[in-house]
Structure formats: structure tokens, C-alpha cells
Amino acid sequence: MRVVKPAGQSQISLPVDLPNGEWAVAITQDTNNNDKLDKNMVGIPTEPFAFSNNVRPRLSPPDFEDCKFVVSGPGKVVTISLTR
Fold first, then answer.
1. Distance in angstroms (rounded) separating the CA atoms of residues 71 and 20
2. Are residues 25 and 82 in contact, defined by beta-carbon separation less than 8 angstroms?
3. Which of 1, 2, 7, 71 has the fewest CB atoms within 10 Å distance of its CB?
4. What pLDDT does residue 84 have?
């Protein structure tokens, strides 16, 4: 887990320091600083969120296969666009 302050940006670039392999990233933005992802009555997030590969889920969280990326050495950077 890593805390990043987007400072008004809708796109976040994260340096990835992980062992080689397949990985996926999910990020959320706690806009009201209550330390949780707020959701509506149906369970849909009301705060910005995103997944690696910029996968946009419809009715459920996306599959790992859709979000995965490969780390094969140092210097990997993942860029993700938050939903609004």
C-alpha cells in the first residue's frame, strides 16, 4: 500500500518496486479524508477510483487478468487515470 496525493491530477504515475511477475493495481482517492472509500446505496464508489490498464468496470470489480501488468526488472512505472 502506498499513499499518493494527486494534487488535483486525474492521472497518477506510480513507480513500481515489486518482485518480477504479474501484478495489478487498484487505487482510490479519499476526497473527504474519512479513511474509507465512500459508496452509494447500491455499492458503487462515490469517490474517484481506478484499476491498472485503466479498466473501467461496469457492475463488479474487474478480473485480475484484465488489470494485470508484468514487472520484469527495475524502473517499471504504471500510469492510471482516476474516474470522476
1. 5
2. no
3. 1
4. 64
d(CA 80, CA 37): 18
Distance CA 14, CA 4 (A): 9
pLDDT of 9 higher than 90? no
Residue 6 above 70 pLDDT? no
3-state secondary structure the chain: CCCCCCCCCCEEEEEECCCCEEECCEEECCCCCCCCCCECCCCCECCCEEEHHHCCCCCCCCCHHHHCEEECCCCEEEEEECCC
Q: Three cell numbers at 82?
A: 482516476
Single pTM value for the model: 0.80
Angle subtended at Cα 50 by Cα 46 and Cα 56, rounded to the nearest 5 degrees = 90
Pairing of strands 49-51, 11-16: unpaired
